[in-house]
Amino acid sequence: MATLNWRTINIDLLDPESPANFSIATLSPSAPSVSTSEVQGLSSQIKQVLRGGDSEGALRGALENPPYGGDAAAKEVHLATVVEILQSIKQSEMSPLLSRIYSSEGGVEVLDVLMKYLYKGMSHSSKPSSASTGSMSPQPTGFSQIHSRGGGEGGGQAMSVLLSWHEKLVEIAGPGSIVRVMSDRRT
Fold it and tell me: 37 vs 136, which has greater pLDDT?
């Protein structure tokens, strides 16, 4: 009789479909490397199209060329460009624009990329900035109130724009877009 204890056998090594037998890195597709300067160049071209009045062309140009292989700085530049485009489009133009993109060839993938940028923008808008946390004043109730100083577009306005786009995008592309974005391994 063999003295092998069957409880100590690692059965994952015997299963050909086990994650122990293949690299998990193969699950995410490789993306070509993109430098920050290339993304900045693309961003300036897209902003030029936007200034020319073609907001759909600018949005399409930004969403068809996401810098999957770029570093964090390149992705931040591209995110800022996409958010700037979204903020420049009127709310009454959102649904017709999304419908045109959705019905075009490759439109579903383009709208999925837009959904990724909406979620990324929402995650950045929800982070407190260092300027707003530095101006906290205690209240007689025992709670602290955070004051944001300065004007311009705050995170609240950007969040409102992103949420409006999210609502319209789910209306046009359906909830499947959310599922595809959450399961996509490309960032």
Answer: 37
What pTM did the predictor assign?
A: 0.74
As a whole number of angstroms, the distance between CA 15 and CA 1 comes to 25
Residue 15 tokens read as: 């299963």
| Contact present, 58 and 87 (Cβ < 8 Å) | no
Could you give the count of Cα atoms lying within 13 Å of 39 in the half-sphere of its Cβ?
A: 23
10-29 residue pLDDT tens: 877 778 777 777 776 777 77
Helix (H) or strand (E) holding 25: none
The DSSP result for 128-164, as a single string, is PPHHHHTSEEE-TTS-EEE---S-S--HHHHHHHHHH
Q: CA-CA distance, 148 to 64, in Å (whole number)? A: 36
